[in-house]
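Good morning C.,

I know you're traveling, so I'll keep this short. The sequence:
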Amino acid sequence: MQQETSPNVRWGEWIGEGWQMFAERWQVWVLQMLIVFLVFAVPIVPFYLMMIAAQLNTAPGEVPEFPVLFFPLMFAVVLISILGSAYFWSGLYKTAFKQLRGEAISVGDLFSGGDVFLRVLGALIAISVLASLGFVLCFLPYFVVLGVLHFTIPLIVERNLGVGEALSASYNATKANWFMTTLFVLVLYILASAGAVACYVGALASYPLLFTITAISYRDVFGVAGARRYSPNQQQYPTNYSGPSWASSGSVPPPPPPQFNAFPDEQATLTICPNCGTQMNRGARFCNKCGNPLNAG
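The tokens, ready to paste straight into the viewer:
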């Protein structure tokens, strides 16, 4: 089934809500980023130290002589970069979608992506190959591939899709407005990496925006059951993506809306939003309808 309407890129709303989402639980996001950076630093720091030492000990015009461990360490850096990116991206997107649904998040959610790790790894490899082909053809197609396939990994994490299904769903949802989507993704990556300018310390705060802003934009394009909105007066937009029928395609369906037990003896597990009157689980921290903060009982 083809997309019926082109998704509108709502720059200010998506970036603004993504920032509010990060600011709400910045402690968790910063600690998660710190763990990620430390894991990657274990092989990368010795690798660069060896490379610098070899350059300093080499006379001008001569070929540097690297120690025996240099090339195995280089292989380890590449391997950890690929596997670590897939594993941690899985956990970071799971963290983002949990927070978007009003659930409590913790640093441990960083390690919750094991069930989708292999598919996310396959998606990263597929996107890298396609983007590399686009780079060979011309510089612009490289960014277009990254733009139209940007929602592939979120679709795997949030809807439990296979790699091929997620690639197709992301492409179908963005192809009608590929130019603005590509610009948005490019700006998003620039924002996420901006913190690296401050000796990489600022990246602890900027890199999480890649996942929070993506989760917000995904909500408006594909829809997320029970998703919150971080702007109190924001207009409710219908999702732009018609996409395949998840029930009829044999794929895992999107999460159903919350169901509540109406029996009197179980009313103790329910609570009422004081702002809009919506009934929900007592453990919820935010109203699924209006986003109003709740006092969990």
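Safe travels,
E.
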